[in-house]
Specification:
6-stranded mixed beta sheet; 118 residues; 29% helix; Nuclear Transport Factor 2, Chain: A; globular; alpha+beta
């Protein structure tokens, strides 16, 4: 598997977890030291990946047919990477997510998420 495909698989784990409201899968997609920042409409939000999994994903219902996504803009440089994820219909909103990822101990994990509603 190419490194770009491995990065895409790490982001896909996040997507699958969010879609299924599987907090454990989402938590495991993030590095233990991850942080996220962004905007829900005009409101600034920040939390860790683990907090997002426990406080948002764990309390959500699984997504229905209104949910769709596109992973694109993957760039890999050594053991760091960037990916863009567009989500439509997630928790009633559309999002653009910019993920920073690192490869540590042979596995790609999300270390940062910067997002906004669109």
């Amino acid at each position: 598997m190419s490194e770009a495909a491995a990065v895409e698989a790490a982001v896909q784990q996040y997507v699958d977890g969010c879609k299924a409201a599987d907090a454990d899968a989402v938590r495991d997609a993030f590095d233990e030291n991850s942080v996220m920042w962004g905007y829900l409409g005009p409101d600034y939000v920040t939390m860790t990946g683990a907090e997002f999994a426990a406080n948002v994903v764990a309390t959500a219902e699984p997504s229905g047919p209104e949910y769709s996504f596109e992973i694109h803009g993957i760039a890999v440089t050594g053991d760091v990477a960037h990916a863009v994820l567009d989500e439509r219909g997630f928790l009633g909103a559309d999002f653009r997510n910019h993920f920073g990822l690192i490869k540590r101990d042979g596995a790609w994990r999300i270390t940062s998420k910067v997002f906004t509603t669109v």
